[in-house]
Amino acid sequence: MKKTVLFIALLIGFACEDKEKDCAGVAGGTSYEDECGGCDANVNNDCVQDCADVWGGTAVVDNCEQCVGGTTGVVACNQDCADVWGGNNICGCTDSTSSNYDSTATHDDGSCLDCAGVEGGNNICGCTDSTSSNYDSTATHDDGSCLDCAGVEGGNNICGCIDSTATNFNPEVTYDDGSCSYSYLEWTVIGSGLDADVQKNALTEFVGSTNCPYCPAVDSLLLSYLNPSHVNYVGSSIADRWSLINYHTYSPSRGDPMYEFHRGESETGEDDFCYVRFEEGSWYTIYGVPTTFTNGILSSVYPEMAVSSLGESTPVQMGLNGTTINGLDIQIEITINSSSDLTTENSLYLFIAATIDSVNYTGYNGDPHHQDVFLGWITDGFNGELLSITHEEKIKTYTWQMSSNWPQNDYETSWSQVEWDPANLHIVAFIQDQTSKEILQVISY
Questions:
Q1: Angle at 136 between CA 134 and CA 137, to 5 degrees
Q2: Average pLDDT over residues 366-377
Q3: For residues 211 and 111, what is the distance between their CA atoms, to the nearest angstrom?
């Protein structure tokens, strides 16, 4: 039995000695040697070739798709300022309008300064002072370019009259803007006469009343000719030279507050402007309202009603350049010039009327809004001022103040429902021949 066991053991020993040993020296083992000489049985840690084909090498493919490191001697690429791998951008401001523009930059890095010096800003620079002549409503940053009243950039001049002899002298003024006005209480010659006749302007005098049922339609039609937004507008070449006065009267009945303010004690006598202008006979005679006169001639209301007058020439030119309206106070500086001597006429009269727009009052006829409302004569009396017009330029000043409680007066105190604003005050001045009723010239302010 012992011999049998020994025989089997010898057989097993001989069998093992016949198997090949692995790299670790283990007979019949599973370890093997990889390309880098490593010996084990783990296939997951075998060495591999790097991008340079070196087994177990350390070379790698960088972000620029090139083989670097290891045995290559090549350095890995970097990101440039624009985050481009291997790029060569030059970063900076590429906006040529910016103060820090870099002409060598190939990539804008957002460092551009806007006009206000803000990095990456989008300010619009300009003048933000709404009182300046070069005000820019789109500007978000004031760049100091605002012009003062003297046209000086960034200046702080006070403009006005620096002549101490003028009526509007201001000792605080630092720049004379040519606005000086002088008190010419009498007609004063300031220049020579015109070399030739000039174009005549047109005046339409509308006579009506808030008690007149037919007046609103006629008045509205007349006003539509001068309204740029209305289909009846006659155009600026006519409208700019066409003046209106809207007289309110006691016809067909009393009670219009815009007449009642003016009426005299006698109601229909020499102290009543309406009677003198439209019934006494020296100027016009009316037989009811509405009635319309254009340049002294009775006329109907139609689009071309002023064209004939505007097509005429006249020797007389008028100016209101020095006129000012300050609240309820008006100072008129009127000049009259002529291309010929008209002293032989002896019937030329100057009328200066104060008027007001946008009066709100609803009377008997239901018309709630009133334009060009006659407020009174600024020249003395109701018949105008007799003129002596020679071949020279003359000047005279007048002052007038609107009543703060208009249209209330000593006779009528119940018109508080009439609404108005002195900002809508205007001046209409004209010269009329009492004999022919022709209006030689008219000007408005």
A1: 140
A2: 96
A3: 74
Residue with tokens 């090139």: 66
Minimal CA–CA distance to 260: which of 379, 371, 410? 410
Residue 14 is predicted with a pLDDT of 47
Predicted local distance difference test score (pLDDT) of residue 17: 53
Residue 296: CB partners within 8 Å, gap ≥ 6? 432, 433, 436, 437, 438, 439
Check residue 444 and give its pLDDT.
98
Distances (CA, A) of 245 to 4, 89, 219: 154, 76, 11
DSSP, collapsed to helix, strand or coil, labels residue 207 as strand
Q: Which of 42-46, 141-145, 394-398, 406-410 has the highest mean pLDDT?
A: 394-398
Instruction: Locate 219 and state its tokens.
Output: 């008045």
Rounded Cα distance between 149 and 131, Å, is 9
Question: CA-CA distance, 88 to 83, in Å (whole number)?
Answer: 10
pLDDT confidence of residue 238: 97
189-444 adopts what CATH topology?
Answer: Immunoglobulin-like (2.60.40)
Q: What is the 3-state secondary structure (H, E, C) of 224-244?
A: HCCCCCCCCCCCHHHHCCEEE
C-alpha span between 35 and 33 (Å, rounded): 7
CA distance 233 to 227: 6
Instruction: Look at the block and give the residue holding tokens 């009498």.
Output: 186
Distance CA 53, CA 368 (A): 101
The bridge status of strand 198-199 relative to strand 60-61 is: unpaired
Residue 51 pLDDT > 60, yes or no?
yes
User: Which of 360, 370, 352, 369 shows the shortest CA–CA distance to 428?
Assistant: 352
CA distance 389 to 386: 10
CA triplet 258, 259, 264: central angle to 5 degrees?
A: 135
Q: Quick check: helix, strand or coil at residue 3? A: helix
HSE-CB for 389 with a 13 A CA cutoff: 29
Q: Which of 442, 166, 187 is nearest to 324 (CA)?
A: 166
pTM for the model: 0.65
> Which whole number is the average pLDDT over 281-308?
95
Count the neighbouring beta carbons within 10 Å of the beta carbon of residue 390. Answer: 16
Whether the pLDDT of residue 408 is over 80: the answer is yes
In the chain, domain spans: 85-123, 127-177, 189-444
**Block residue for tokens 């000695």:** 17
DSSP letter (8 states) at residue 302: -
Q: So what's the pLDDT on residue 140?
A: 87
Q: What is the DSSP letter of 380?
A: S
Which residues make Cβ contacts (< 8 Å) with residue 275, sequence separation at least 6?
268, 269
Confidence grade of residue 351 (pLDDT, cut at 50, 70, 90): very high
Q: Is 4 helix (H, G, I), strand (E, B) or coil?
A: helix
